[in-house]
Amino acid sequence: MKTVRLFDEDAYGVNFQARVIGVQEIDGKRGVVLDRTSFYPTGGGQPHDTGFLNDLSVMDVQEQGDGIVHFLAQGQMLEPGTEVLGRVNWARRFDHMQQHSGQHILSAGFVVVASANTRGFHLGRDGVTIDLDRHDIDWDTAHSVEHWVNAEIWANRVIRTSLVVEAELAAIPFRRTPKVAGDLRVVEVVDTDWSACCGTHVRATGEIGVVKIHRLEKYKGGTRVHFVCGGRALASAQAKQQALDATARLLSASEDEVAEAVQRLQFEGRELRKQLRDCENKLLNLEAARLAQTAEALPGFSMICAQLDFGDMKTLQQMARVLTVVPGRVVLLGVVQERTALVLARSEDVDLDVRPPFQLAMAALQGRGGGSAALTQGSGDRMESLDTVFDEVKAYVRSNAE
After folding, report:
1. Which of 57, 285, 331, 347 has the most CB atoms at less than 10 Å from its CB?
2. Residue partners of 38: CB distance under 8 A and separation at least 6
3. Which residues on adjacent β-strands are paired with residue 367?
4. Rounded distance, CA 247 to CA 110, Å?
5. Residue 314 belongs to what H/E stretch?
């Protein structure tokens, strides 16, 4: 089953008449094959078109041999012989045309300005990327490429597509040598770029509008360039303008002062965090001094047990370290937040492995944790009072101190 590819001749022809000539299954999905179509199938880095066959939604389009298979919305099907009116979603088609044509000129720009060749292209729903064979592309280079590319776009150069027989291909100065033999469809940006390509393109570069690079990243030994063209570039600029306006209002600054205002906030934040750490350390030391007064004397060491009414696991660990700096101490601390956290520790000179009593506590709390013979920590789901847990641990420690 062979489908005539109307989009090869006219990317702007989005309404057409055709006849269903068969049904084809791909990956467990059944779709219809037409004798002719304007629906572009996924391929060459470009996504498929969407639209309608009569009143049935076309959700996916794939190439299968010489045929093009149109997959309709769930449960919908057309019988062979059915005459259909096809309508391609023009907004999606034109977006793809802008992005794909812009990619050709951008790739040419990286060759001219940076001697960087494109080895991969992907056109997605939200962004477009090309993969370059150079890893050292920086923003100065990218901006130079942007200037070159957009000057070519605004020159409104004609874009031609044609089927070139194999014998004539050697005379074409391809940006990238085709990997396939035989007759090829060639897309020419007049005086700028020649590429073997099966995608849909605008008639002249002016329809691309503008190309804007958004991000550069290292990728497989080269550079991945994220960019947008035309309508996507406008939408992106509008979204960024709104974000900048909102940020400026929050900072009570003009747009030009946003970066300086953020730097000032960062500096102030660092200073405040330093002050907070100093205050927390003072509070910990004061609380540690208070808890030391509650120590219970046992044979060979003293034991401190306390449920804190502030902090988290990190607070418990810091407090335990402060208290066990003093020789001859065993420290059991807990705090109830979203979960019940517990720390059991001892001073270096105390002959006690805190892991067995700590596991008793974890069992009571239905929790998990662990650590060394000198310091253990963990948390459990049970949220009730720690008194029972403390009593079990204290009983174990007392029996081992006697």
Report:
1. 331
2. 6, 7, 10, 13, 14, 15, 16, 49, 86, 88
3. 380
4. 34
5. helix 313-324
Give the three-state DSSP class for 109: helix
The whole-number pLDDT of residue 181 equals 84
pTM for the model stands at 0.74
CATH no. for residue 332?
Answer: 3.10.310.40
Q: What is the pLDDT of residue 5?
A: 95
pLDDT at residue 72, as a whole number: 95
**Would you state the pLDDT for residue 402?**
61
Boundary of a domain, candidates 28, 53, 88:
88
Angle at 83 between CA 78 and CA 86, to 5 degrees: 85
Listed as ranges, residues in the chain with pLDDT below 70 are 383-385, 402
Which 3-state string (H, E, C) describes 175-208?
CCCCCCCCCEEEEEECCCEEEECCCCCCCEHHHH
**Residue 261 within any structural domain of the chain:** no
Rounded-to-integer distance, Cα 38 and Cα 353, Å:
77
Q: Are 194 and 175 in contact (CB under 8 A)?
A: yes
Q: Are residues 66 and 115 located together in one domain of the fold? A: no
Question: Are 317 and 376 spatial neighbours (Cβ–Cβ below 8 Å)?
Answer: no
Question: Vertex 217, ends 211 and 222: CA angle to 5°?
Answer: 100
Q: Which two tokens stand for residue 180?
A: 């396939």
- Paired with 32 in beta bridges are 23, 70
Among 88, 111, 140, the domain-final residue is 88
H/E run at residue 366: none
Where on the phi/psi map is residue 145: left (φ > 0), alpha (ψ -120 to 50), or beta?
A: alpha
CATH number at residue 72: 2.40.30.130
Query: In angstroms, rounded to a whole number, what is the distance separating the alpha carbons of residues 100 and 189?
Result: 12
Which SS3 state, helix, strand or coil, does residue 93 take? helix
